[in-house]
Structure formats: structure tokens, C-alpha cells
Amino acid sequence: MATEGVHEGDEAMSSAGTEGKVLAGFAGFGSFMQDTSVQTLVTQSDAEYTVPQLPVSSDPCQHGFEESAGFGKEQRANFMLGTEYFFVNHGAFGAAAKAVFEAAQAWRRYAEQQPLKFIDRELLPLLVHVAREFAPEVGAAATDLVFLPSATVGLNTVINAAAREWVEGDEVLSLSVGYSAVRKMLDIRCAEHGVRHVTANVPLPVTSADEVVEAVRSAIGPKTRFAVFDHVTSNTALVLPVERLIALCRKRGVRVLIDGAHAPGMLPLNLTDLGADWYVANLHKWYCCPRGSAFLWARPEHHESLQPLVISHGSGDGLTSAFIWDGNRDYSATLAVLTAIRVWRLWGPDKAREYMKQTVQTAAEGLIAAWGTDVFAPWDMVGSMVLVRLPAACAGITEADEAYPAHAKFVQDTLFHTYQVEAPVKVAAEKLYVRISAHVYNHSIDYRALSSAITTMRDTSLGKVTVCSKGGGCA
């Protein structure tokens, strides 16, 4: 039975010290024992807002961060990477900074000391605090940003919302260099609504950003309603001219979703100024948080149309309220973002990004010189990772031969098993490329190991592969 002023489903509250007070649970959140809604907390001015008590320190030095470590080999001390592999594939799934990982562990331990106290009375205001702290780091208002387990969740969320407004005969647009999972998301929703999915073909290898802009300009038609572009492409490691693409689409009345999975940490961001309708990104990649941390940003006019994939207690009370809780799961990766922010401040974001970009460019130039090849894109379209063309002989084929995925797999497996080099090998424009990444812990020795391994494979024709079929093969 609900008591006046107490929402049905709220836990019983002690009457001690409550004489004369109106007792109320957290509106719309069942048993959550909060005095102020998360939607109110996220919209308060800095003068009105009270920072919640932090039971776990956000100071990286309290979690083992070595502030004196320089970039390169010394910085490995601030990561948990083993020494048995030369790791030049940060772009795949990232690598958590040790202090951020340990902060997440500390949050998990704290939660288990008194789970009800943590979940019912502390968690939601803490998550709002993370949003208020992190949003300025990407040029956003906290009211426009919500945390999610992955960019994939965010992409599905936005595409689902956008698709509800599509009508039969509309068109949606993506790029030939876009992420394959996004193409599948679009294909499914397009089939449901009788909408045509148009793919703008980007010529490869890319010689200038103008080629990407022209591909989009040519593909937009009078029925185009929605477009999705990568900020940094995954397979081809291209930093796309998203500002120009967004401006072009907005002039044509096309709404734009940016898949920024690789951007935070690699590129400076100001989401408010960028001009997109929605922006989705991971924090476990270049921002070095534990896996399970990502965010979705949306322009205010799109808040109402966004629904989380998991509907829960906060639905209907605003963007933050709708997305902040999707069930009783582990939220420690999001809470640890507080520590990640401070790690980046200690590194210096501009200095870290410059080190990463210069390291990957220097490494690529060394590989080009050693192998007599080239890179996939101009340097103004390169961030902290780049494709470098491999000598075809490392896969047992000639430069005139077409490379298949079987060749790429063979080279990548050989690098991993024989030479202990972790680097992804791709097929692009019928040639073999290795995608190299650089973070603050990478050093020239990592790329020398890659160079030596490929040179040995090239010179000994070790990588002979019998291709069983196009797109497949057997070694």
C-alpha cells in the first residue's frame, strides 16, 4: 500500500528524524532512495550543484599511476600490457590505463561492501557526476550526453530512433569505407521500412579528403533523409572530413550520425560545434578506459525521440533519466571515467595526441623505406593509426597478383605466432596492408620488430598461401 508522498514500490523508510518532512522516493525509479531526480541534478548550474561524496578516489596516483614516466617505453609502466608481444594494435580493442582499471576494480569492491547502499543511495548521483565531469572534455553539455556499454549500443539506439521517422521510398546514406556492422544495422531497418540504403563509393587508396566529400555530394539525392559517417574508419584508418560532410548534409536537410568509435583520445573533440545530430563513441579504445564504457551525444531536439534499447524505470523523464539505468549490472567502467579524465590531464591531451601522431608517422616512414611501399592515405587524413602497404612477397604472391583475405590472415597469423607481433593485416584495393597504431606507450622498437618480421617473410617467401576461393583460403 502506497503512503501519501511515497511512490508505490519504494522501500520503507525509517521515521526517525522525519517529523514534519514530506517523504518521497525517487520519482519513476521504484526503490531508488534519492531526494533529487537525476534529471534535476544534470540540469543544475554549477552554483546549484553539490558534488556527491566520492567513496573511491579519482586521483590516478592513488591507483598506481607513475606521473614521472615519459612517453614511450617508460609509459608502459602505466599500462598492463605484457612483454611477450610487440603490441602495435591499440586501435582494435584499446588497452586500459592501469590506474583507470584499478579505479574500476576499487568501485567494484566498494559496491560489494554494501550493495543496497551503493545501488539505492549512491550510484545514480555518482553517474550524473561522471557526466558533468566528462562532458566538457568533449565540448558537450552534460544534458546532451549519456553513457552506454558500447558504441554499438549507441549506433543501434540512434538508427532505431531515426528509422521511426522514415517512410517508404526514403533513402539513407553510408560510405563504402564504413564499419560493416553499421551497414547491417541500416540494411535491417531499411528492409523493415521500405527504405533504400545508398552506399557512397570512396575511391581507394584515398588521395585527398576532397574525394570523400565529392563521393557524398554525388550520392545525396532528394529522398536522402539520414546519413552515418565514421569519424575515423576502422579497417582503413582514415580520419574523415566530418565537419565538411556534416555541413554538406545539413544544407540538404539530411540528419547525420557520426560513428566516433576511435575518436576520443585520438582527436580533439567539440561536439557542440561539430554540428552533427548524433555522435557515438567508445572510451575503451584511445581514451584507455576499461571495456564497457562509451557514450551517446544528441542535439536537444532529438532527446525526446531517443529510447534506450533496454527500457527501465527512468523512461519518460528526460534523456539522462531514460539512459542512466538499464538494469542491475556493473557500472564501474563508467565510474572509472573520473580517473581517466585525470590521467589525460596528467599526460596533457595535446602533448599525448602529438606524440601518438608523430610516432605512427615516423614508424610508417621507416616501414615504407624498409619495404619500398607506401601508405594508404595522405598525412592530413591520418590520426594515431595508418595503413602501410606490405610487400606482396611476404604472402608468397607477386605485386601483380590480387590479394585475398586468406593472404591477410596468413600474414597476420604468422606475425602473431612466429614473431610475436600483434598487428592487423587488411586487404584494401586488392593489396595487402598492415594497420599500425601508436599510443603513448609505443616506441620505435615495436615497429622495428614488425619491419624485421615482414622483411624476413618477404626475402624467404615464407608466406605462400593457396587461395581456395575469393574471400577465403587455406594455408
Protein traits:
475 residues, seven-stranded mixed beta sheet, disordered N terminus, 36% helix, three-stranded antiparallel beta sheet, 14 strands, alpha/beta
What does this structure look like?
By secondary structure, the protein is of the alpha/beta class. Helices cover 36% and strands 13% of the residues. The strands form four sheets. The protein has a seven-stranded mixed β-sheet, with helices on both faces. Strands 9-12-11 form a three-stranded antiparallel β-sheet.
Main beta-sheet annotation: 7 strands, mixed
| Spatial strand order of the main sheet | 2-8-7-6-5-3-4
Mean pLDDT: 92
Shape: globular
**What helical percentage do the residues reach?**
25-40%
How many strands in all?
A: 14
**Parts with pLDDT < 50 across at least 5 consecutive residues:** 1-17, 23-28
Question: What structural class do helix, strand and pairing data support?
Answer: alpha/beta
Beta-strand percent range? 5-15%
Rg computed from alpha carbons, rounded to a whole number of angstroms = 25 Å
Order of helices and strands: HEHHHEHEHEHEHEHEEHHHHEHEEEHEE
Number of helices: 15
C-alpha end-to-end distance: 69 Å
